[in-house]
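User: I'm new to structure prediction. If I give you an amino acid sequence, what do you actually give back? Let's try with this one:
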Amino acid sequence: MRNRRPVTAEEAMRASSLSVDEAATPGAILAAMERAGVDELPVVTGDGRLAGMVERRAVERRFYDRGDEETPASAIAAAPVAQAAPGEPIEDAVDKMLAAHLGVLPIVSARGRLDGLLLLDDVRGVPGLIEFVADRRRRRDLDADGGTRVVAVACGLASAGLGLVLLALWAAGPAYGLPRWVAWVDGIAALLALIGAGLAPARDMVSAPLWAVAGVGLCFAALNAHAWRDSASSTWLQFLFGIAFLLMAAVVGSPLPRRLRRRWSSRFGPARLASPSP
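Assistant: Good question. You get back a string of structure tokens that encode the predicted 3D arrangement of the chain. For your 278 residues, that looks like this:
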């Protein structure tokens, strides 16, 4: 890897011997990590298949905190967060490492055998590789965030329009036969809609739960009362407003878990790789 830039993950990986057997004890795992200079190692079965990954912190909790010296690696291992194929482009493999904040990425064949390990410190030694992948990820995230923002703004405008209509129903609805409690449901939904419209472009997408509450409230009102002199059309109107709010909550809230996971990982994700031994 020092003579030329690797093209695939296989060209940059270390040998599969950098692993522990599924029967290895916590003490043996920690010793293997010290020899390899890493904080995470793959666990392999007797036929060389990847059984999972063990992290130093999990092993230390067993060994030092609980005094457990016999639990096998197979019981401590967790499913790998990410993995790559031997022929996968090196840029894609590094992208997976950066996305999951990994220091060690297992390289696994199509048959599930561990072929090797890609170490973050190794790929850092390839000129321009990390910078290229990081820049590509930034551009991809900007494109995704830009599209999400456009959708959020559109939902915000729709929410403002619905909020004004509901505000009018709250103010004048009882004069047209709208039950007073239904009018107050409309008023609360209108308030949530207008607040959600103002918060829609915010990165935290606080609008989504507000719209969900508004939608559920309007659907509840429609299920329990006929408005406007017992006209069925008023019930359908409540339902349509409620469904509109629920749809906006679903559309804008769908990318929220991904962003929260990414933010959580970036703030609290552990550094999983120590400096490799020479």
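You can read the tokens as a compact description of the fold. Here is one thing that stands out. Strands lie at 14-15, 20-21, 40-44, 50-55, 104-108, 114-119.
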